[in-house]
């Protein structure tokens, strides 16, 4: 039964990946600042909800929200890979966007680069949002 050891390695790899992802899962809140003055971009308060991808256990997703007062306006979802401490994501393939974050404790800092020339479009700094009491 040669397939049993291979299956065990695959299962253990998935379990290890899930455990490794736990440090970045959850809600993150902070600022997303524009870096291209002539663009339609606006500085924003943001909320990112990072969770395991439901379709691919090797990936994560970020549901991104713009915070306006107390309201959270959904902006979209991006798909990510995580290799501690780096989170790398893409969302809009037409703009060839690349989101890169670095995890340091309860802080994620990163950038959004767009286009073939990887123009720096946003700088992002978010921190782990406190868990809500029930």
CATH architectural grouping: Beta Barrel
Biggest β-sheet strands, sense, barrel: 8 strands, antiparallel, barrel
Instruction: Find the structural class using helix and strand composition.
Output: mainly beta
Which CATH class applies here?
Mainly Beta
What's the tally of helices?
Answer: 1
Number of domains: 1
Residues in β-strands, percent: over 45%
Low-pLDDT sequence parts: 7-19
CATH superfamily: Calycin beta-barrel core domain
What is the approximate shape? globular
- Can you give the helix content as a percent range? 10-25%
**Termini distance?**
49 Å
Give the integer mean of the pLDDT values. 85
Write down the CATH topology: Lipocalin
Question: SSE string, helix = H, strand = E?
Answer: HEEEEEEEE
As a whole number of angstroms, the C-alpha radius of gyration is 17 Å
Give a count of the beta strands, DSSP E runs of length 2 or more. Answer: 8
Strand order of the largest sheet: 1-2-3-4-5-6-7-8
Structural account:
With 134 residues, the protein is mainly beta. The chain has a single domain (3-128), classed as Calycin beta-barrel core domain (Lipocalin, Beta Barrel), CATH 2.40.128.20. Helices cover 14% and strands 52% of the residues. The protein contains one helix and eight strands; from the N terminus they run H-E-E-E-E-E-E-E-E. The protein has one helix at 3-21; strands spanning 26-34, 44-52, 60-68, 71-83, 86-90, 98-104, 107-114, 119-128. Strands 1-2-3-4-5-6-7-8 form an eight-stranded antiparallel β-barrel. Mean pLDDT is 85; it is low at 7-19.
